[in-house]
Amino acid sequence: MKLYANTVRGVVNAIDEIFNQQQYADKVIERTLKSNKKWGARDRGFIAESVYEMVRWWRLINEVSPSDDPYHLFATYWVMQGNALPPWEEFQNIHVDRVKSRYEALDSRAILQSIPDWMDEMGSELLGDQWEEEINALNEQAEVVLRVNTLKTSREALMNRLQEDGVDTYAPRGYRDALVLGKRQNIFRNPAFKEGLYEIQDASSQLVAAALDVEPGMRVIDACAGSGGKSLHIASLMQNKGRVLSMDIEEWKLKNTKLRARRNGIGIIETRTIEGSKTIKRLQQSADRLLLDVPCSGMGVLRRNPDTKWKLSPESIANVRTIQQDIIQSYSGMVKPGGLMVYATCSILPTENEYQVKEFLETEQGKSFELVEEQKVLAHESGFDGFYIAKLKRK
Ligand SMILES: C[S@@+](CC[C@H](N)C(=O)[O-])C[C@H]1O[C@@H](n2cnc3c(N)ncnc32)[C@H](O)[C@@H]1O
């Protein structure tokens, strides 16, 4: 594959912003792509993919050929992909044979999987034999998955409509509203997206709203709704009848929820910012269904957000665990007796998942709940993101 100076410069500048100015990879890529209108689909694809892959393999690249120069690191990445380097001045100090021999001599799993040592130790301790395959799967590129908005169309009709636009998709088994893109592309630009016929949502994430067993007419609370991915799905499953209260501590995220609901043709979502414990107390025993899609480490979605590897720490995971237990303790009272609560994370760590649910069930508040079902979704088994979904019933 031929390299072009201006797209490689785009990659190198983005890498500099991500690692030297501590910016989020997705935001940097978005800004970079907007910065040059002349880049076509192929250039944009090259930049986005190269930046994501360099972020994913950052530790490995730096171990194989350490340098402060982002051009040098790009060249290392490029050679490790099995590509030839053009004779550019920026690449003069790269010794291709040395890169290859250092790469072949590595035998540490943490380095080869390009993760911090602490993460490898934690994963191995908590997941045992499954860890190796799981981290391998979490280092693959994520598929692009759509969730069909069944309020406006059917999976088959959307599949045909997209095919007319040259977008090939397939319907994965076991996920009733999901369509997977045959080829990675910018699907936000498609008119069908603007018409609200689909949302981008991983197949594992689509299992969360489904676990709530909602029916039209119910009162549902989505207490950590964020920008509303699950709220939209819940409202579709309720056929836009009943009420969904989408709450979060971040007001700006709920504004996105409202915008997305309008595009999806949904009228039953109401949003409410959580100002403090009073907001929750006022809603005691008011919900037939409660979703707690709690903040988490994101260890199940490393494919999508590879920079999470470099942002997490054992301390940040301990902090988020405290928040998760606080949320389940203080929000669970919003479910009516006989109602269902779903606790979900996009993490594969048992410490954020089944251990939290077990701890909750052993407390005074947890005594009035029973565990109905739990799904531990691992990336290497499902082929999609890692998730945890526990369904609990209030007695
Ligand atoms: C995993 S994200 C939710 C994603 C969202 N449900 C979706 O499907 O797009 C977790 C959310 O919890 C919110 N959050 C953090 N602490 C919270 C708290 N104490 N109460 C409610 N929401 C909280 C965060 O702002 C974040 O939006």
TrEMBL record:
Q: Pfam family example for this protein?
A: Methyltr_RsmB-F
The cross-references to CDD domains, in alphabetical order and at most eight, read: AdoMet_MTases
- The UniProt record gives the binding positions of S-adenosyl-L-methionine as D248, D293
Asked if Repressor is a keyword of the record, the answer is no
Keyword field contains Iron = no
Q: Which positions fall inside the SAM-dependent MTase RsmB/NOP-type domain? A: 134-395
Q: What protein name does the entry list?
A: RNA methyltransferase
